[in-house]
Each structure stands twice: as C-alpha cells, then as structure tokens.
Amino acid sequence: MNRIALLAGIAASTTAIAGPGLQITEAYIGLSGQDGTADWIEVTNFGPAPANLMGLFYDDSSADPTEGGDLPNIDLGAGESIVILIEAGASDIADFEAIWGTGINVIAVAGGGGLGQGGDAAVIIDAMSNIIDVVATPNVPDGEFGTVQFDIDGNGVFSTVGLNGAYLSAAFENDNFGTIQLIGNPGFIPAPAGFALLGLGGLTAARRRRA
Fold it and tell me: Among 1, 139, 121, 133, which Cα is nearest to 62's?
C-alpha cells in the first residue's frame, strides 16, 4: 500500500482532533539485521503549555488503542521532546543510551507493534480512537542508517550528519553491514524556522492534518 493510501485508510477509520500540540518529529525504523536499539519515535510538544501523555497510546498503521502501547503519566513541557521506544522495556533504554548517549528524555512502551521497513505509519491516538498525530514512514533502502526526521507538516527526510542537528551514534555491529553508526538527533529538534525547511524534498506524504 502506498503512503497516501495508508494515511487515507487511517483517516477513514478514525477521527482527527485538535490535540495538545503533540507531533511525531522523528522515527527509527530499524535495519536489516542487528538494529542497535528498539524501533522508536520522537514526540515533540509544540503547544504553549505542558501536555500530559496519560490516556494516549502509540500504535502502528492499525491505529487501534486496544493494541497500542499506553503512554505514562508524564508531563511534556512546551517545546520538549521525548523518545518512545516501541515494544520495549528497561533494558532497551540502556541499549538506546549506549548507542545515542545519555541526557535524552526516553521511555519504553510495550505494545503497538514495531515499524515495518517496507513502509508503515506511526500514530498517537487516544482511547476513543481519536488521532492526535500520524505520520507515514518510508521504505528503508539497504545501507540507509539514518532516522527519519519529520517537519511540522509531516514531511520526512532521512537524517544527514550536520543537518537539523543530526549526528553519528556510537558504533555497533550489524550482521549484514559490519560495523556501522546510525544518524539522527533523538530527543531534540532544531528551532522551528529551520525545522520547517525539512519539507523541501521530503520523502513522505504530508500527515493528515488535525481538525
């Protein structure tokens, strides 16, 4: 299924609402072979006030809160980002910090399903199946080690070192590619003016806008 059809299908089966300013701003979809970390998404609060994550869920393209990973009772301050490790536990947080470093706001959730490397969607949804935000994730070519960064319109680009704050992770062994380093900027976003420029030449279709 192409990305536009995927988002359209989610739109047809759920309701978009004016959310608390929460948007998905980065995603790690994994690799062929050893991933280094669990799949993850980054969520940023673009609202003017703190947003509490309790009562919200992460899910993939199924967009089903009954199968999603429930988010904890955490306040995300205005302008703050958090990394959500998918289908993960405490040991996965340690693995993430070994790859990306400490000082990143990161949590782990069980449920929701990992992101497919052949194209998928990441959804933040509430218990009534109202969509807070959704982005389409692209097919990951072999040899692509970048995360996907999303602008405020949901356009995505693979991360490039030095662009939008992206940097190289610690090295690890992948059974298909040998010693590799990931590229990304988990837990942080550029200033909004620069971040919006991600939309130029983006890989993915724009997110379905909230009502």
Answer: 121
Contacts of 78 (CB under 8 A, 6+ apart): 21, 45, 47, 48, 49, 50
Cross-strand pairs, 28: 40
How much is the pLDDT for 163?
A: 92
Is the backbone of residue 164 left (phi > 0), alpha (psi -120 to 50) or beta? left
Give domain limits for the chain. Answer: 3-197
Q: What is the pLDDT of residues 170-188, one digit of tens each?
A: 999 999 999 999 999 999 9
User: Cβ contacts of residue 151 below 8 Å, gap of 6+?
Assistant: 195, 196, 197, 198, 199, 202
3-state secondary structure of 191: coil
pTM for this model (two decimals): 0.85
Cα distance between residue 90 and residue 80, in whole Å: 22
DSSP string, 8-72: HHHHHHSEE---SSEEEEEEE---SS--SS--EEEEEE-SSS-EE-TTEEEE-TT--TTTSEEP-
Query: Which residue, among 26, 31, 50, has the nearest Cα to 174 in the 3D structure?
Result: 31
Residue 175: CB atoms within 10 A of its CB come to 9
Are 179 and 170 within 8 A, CB to CB?
Answer: no
Query: Pairing between strand 81-86 and 106-109?
Result: parallel
pLDDT tens-place string over residues 57-66: 999 888 888 8
Taking alpha carbons only, the member of 165, 172, 161 closest to residue 191 is 165
Q: Which fold has domain 3-197?
A: Immunoglobulin-like (2.60.40)
